[in-house]
Amino acid sequence: MSTQIKITHTFNAPRELVFKAFTESEHLQNWWGPKGWTFEVSKSDFRTGGVFHYSQKPADGDVMWVKFVYNEIIAPEKIVYTSFFSDEEGNSVRAPFNENWPMETLNTITFIENEGKTTLTMIVIPVSPTEEEIKTFEDSKEMAQDGYTGTFDQLDEYLTKL
């Protein structure tokens, strides 16, 4: 059985622009993450083997750190990275919202342009999960999809300003 979350979203913008919004921190900080949360980039090194490390904080909660490590980049078609919750130094930690969330996920994003619009497909797969982590991941699919949908809606809005 394939345990994955798959999100598809079409943006009314050319692929180069959508890709840029995903890969440059000055763009990312304007739309990435849950609506109304504070987002700060600690490190942004967009290249194979590079790291993107950021914090996000809800208005009424504690700061959460997340780290991406880029595995593969084919501009402007594809980005593959692993992501995990971290501490301020970038060390792996358990997800603050559920200790049984997978320690690491593999994220593959593809960008396909058609007549000036860009269809993004994102697939999220847990890396070496335990049985308990698989169950938590499966149970969280809808929540995760809603989260990404909200985030991509913010990108839709942001792209109209570029």
CATH class: Alpha Beta
User: What structural class is derived from the secondary structure elements?
Assistant: alpha+beta
CATH architecture: 2-Layer Sandwich
Separation, N- and C-terminal Cα atoms: 41 Å
Number of helices: 4
Domain count? 1
| Secondary-structure element series | EHHEEEEEEHH
Q: Please name the fourth-level CATH homologous superfamily.
A: START domain
Helix percentage range:
25-40%
Number of strands: 7
Give the rounded overall mean pLDDT. Answer: 95
Rg from alpha-carbon coordinates = 15 Å
Beta content comes to: 35-45%
Shape type: globular
Low-confidence stretches: none
Q: How are the strands of the biggest sheet laid out side by side?
A: 1-7-6-5-4-3-2
Largest sheet: 7 strands, antiparallel
Remind me, CATH topology?
Answer: Alpha-D-Glucose-1,6-Bisphosphate, Chain A, domain 4
Q: Overview of this structure, please?
A:
It is globular and about 45 Å long. β3 (51-57) and β4 (64-74) form a beta hairpin. The protein has a single domain, classed as Alpha-D-Glucose-1,6-Bisphosphate, Chain A, domain 4 (2-Layer Sandwich), CATH 3.30.530.20. The termini are far apart. The protein has a 7-stranded antiparallel beta sheet with strand order 1-7-6-5-4-3-2. The chain is α+β, with helices and mostly antiparallel strands and 162 residues long. The chain has helices at residues 15-23, 25-28, 131-139, 141-159; strands at residues 5-11, 38-44, 51-57, 64-74, 78-86, 105-114, 117-126. 19% of the residues are buried. Belongs to the AHA1 family. InterPro entries: ASHA1/2-like_C, START-like_dom_sf. This is SRPBCC domain-containing protein. Pfam families: AHSA1. Residues 12-159 form the Activator of Hsp90 ATPase homologue 1/2-like C-terminal domain.
